[in-house]
Amino acid sequence: MKNVLHLVLGTKHSHWKLICENAKTTWMACSPENVKTIFMFGDQNETFWDGEHSFYVDRADNYVDRADNQYSQILLYKTIKAFEWFYESEYDYIYRTNCTGYFDLKLVLEYLENKPTTNFYSGFIGKSDSVQFASGASFFLSKDLVKKIIDNQ
Predict the structure, then answer these.
(1) Which residue of 5, 27, 73, 101 has the smallest Cβ count within 10 Å?
(2) What strands, in cross-sheet order, belong to the sheet with 121-128?
(3) CB of 28 within 8 A of CB of 37?
């Protein structure tokens, strides 16, 4: 059985906080046991949250949610820091999403059932100039690619 670490970009500001909290009683409530969901927040008091426990990292002040031209850099920073923080966890894939989604994680497991556990990168295909990429709204990475990102940031 494949294991998935589901990392969700979230924030505790305004109505977004309610979206994250409601996930616990909706789609997280029926999550398969081999899918672990962790929210990545941008505040100093609660950096990661799994619906029950909070996780803290050093220099959490770098996790500030902003709406200026550094916004995409901060999202990338949060994502890579989460990769580093949870790399040693037991999973075959990371599924990185945003808090505004509603997830049927059983379908995620069905999708991954026949996928390779190495060199796997998947998501909705976007394009910028001539470069194709999996959209930041939702993508999958096998653990070996997560390691490459950590090692080559």
Answers:
(1) 73
(2) 54-55, 48-49, 35-40, 4-9, 93-98, 131-142, 121-128
(3) yes
